[in-house]
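>> received
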Amino acid sequence: MKKLLCIWVFCLVGLFGATSLGAEEQQDQAASMSGTMGTVTIDGKQWQRLNFRPEIPIGKFGIALDIELFIDSQGRFNKKGWDFSTGAASTESLLRKIYYLRYGHPGDNLFLKVGALDNVSLGYGLIMEGYCNTLEYPGVKKLGLQFGLDGLTPFRIGAEGIVASFQDFRHKGGLIGLRVFGRPVVSTEVPLLSKLTVGATYVTDINQYSGLEDSDGDGYPDKCDAFPRDRKRWLDSDGDGIEDQSDIDDDGDNILDADYENYPQYCPFDSVTVDDLKGVVPFPLDSVVTRKSLFEHGPADAFSMVGFDVGLPILEKAAMRLDLYGQYARILDDSDDDQAKGYGIAAPGLRFTLSPLVAKIEYRHCRGHFIPGYFNRLYEQTRARVSDGSVQTGDSTLDSTDTNGVFGELRAELGKFVSLSANYQYLTGKGGSSERQQSFSAQSYLLSGILDLVPRISHVSAYYQKTRINTKEYRFFEPTPETLCGYKLGMEVSSGMSVVWHTQYTYTTDVNGEVKSQKLVSIETTMTF
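>> returned
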C-alpha cells in the first residue's frame, strides 16, 4: 500500500509541476508532460511499462523526470525502480526517476547535463564520435554526465567532458572522457590566428567489464547468470531450470553426475557416496560432466586513447563558417597481456557550416589496432560482448592494419520535409595491400512538411550504423556484431495521443562464430498533455 502511495505521489507531483509551469513564459520552450505505455523485456520476461515524463524548463535550466511502472500479465508490479530494501537498491531506484537535468545547451559558455546522453562527441571526433548511453533504454538506464566550459581566462581556455555512467563505478570502472582546449594566440597582427584553437583529449574505459550489470551481486553478470535475481544460484549448464549445485545431471545427458574429484562444488554426491554408488547402481555414472564456464567479475581491463587537435576558422561570414583542422590520437592499453597498439591521423580536415547544413571531409591514416571514432553510438554494445556465458572485450577484437583513406559527413534539413544525416569512411591498405576498412551510418526523419500531408502519421524515422566493415569477410550491408539498425513509426489515434512502433536490430555471434540477430520491438502509446 505504501509503495502504491509513493507511486501516485510521484506521478501527481510530476503532472502538477508540468502543468503549473506550462503557463509561464520560458526561455527555451514551454513545459510539457508526456506518457507512454508499451511492452519491454526485463530479465527475459515481457512487462507492460507505464511511463510519465514531465519536462520542465526554467530559464536556462531544464529537468525531465522519468516515472515508470512495470506490470506483468497478472497485474503484479515489478520492483525495478521501486526497490528501497538496501542502500544500493534505493540509490538505483532514485536514479531511475531522472531522465536528465541540464543547464544551458551544447556550445554555450557553460553547459551541464546529468542523465541520458544521446549524442556526445569530443573535439572533431577522432576518438569519441556520437557516443550514447541510451542504447538499452528503457530496460537499462544509465545516469551520465556531460559538460562544457568555454571562455575562461584571456586565452579562452575551455573544457568538455563526459562520465558515461555513474553506475559503472560499482564494478570499479567507468567510461570517462575529457578534452581541454585553448586559444594560445591572444594578440597578433594577423587576426585570423587569434582564433586558432589547440586541444588535447583523453578517454579511458577504466574497466570494460563494468557495464555488465550484476543485479544480485553474486559476481556473475546478468547476461551470464542463469538466475540474475538470486545471489545463491548462477549456473544452469543444461538449461532445465535447476542450478548445477542441486542438479544430479548438469549436462543433460541422462547420466548421473559423479565427478566429485574434479568439481566438488557442483557434484551432488561426496566421494564416499560416489564410491558406494559405483558398486551398487546397475547403470553408468558420469565422471566427465560438461558444464558451462561462466565469466565472473574480477580484475579490471582498461582501454584508453589520448589525442591532440588543432583548428582554425578560415572563413566566417554571417551564418557561414569554414574550419580547417587536424587530429592525432594514440591507443594506451596496458591492462592485459594482449595489448592493443596503434595511432591515427586525420589531417587535413575541412568542416563547412551553413545552418542547418553541416559538411565535413578529412583524410585519415591509421596504423596498428587504431579505429577512428572507437567510442561511438555502438560502444556500450561492443565494449564487452557476452556469448554463452563468456565475455570478449572490444579491444581484444581489434585487428592490426596500416590503412589510408577518407571520411566524409553530411547533416542537412530539406526545408520542412526531411532531416538527413550520414557519414562514410573508406580506408584501404597501404602499398597496394588488400586490407580494407569501411564504416557507414545514416539516419532520417520526416518533418512536418510531409507528416501534415499524411493523415494520422505522427512520426517516421529510420537509422543504420555499421562500423569496421571488412568486405573480405562480409558483404557491405551484411550484419555483423558492429551493426545497429531500426525504424520508428508513429500513428495518431486521437488529439495528443499516438501509438509508436519501434523495431531495433542488434547482432552477436554464437559459440560457432555465426552472426545471430537480436530483435527488440516496443509498442508505446504516447500522450502529450
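>> The mean pLDDT is 82.
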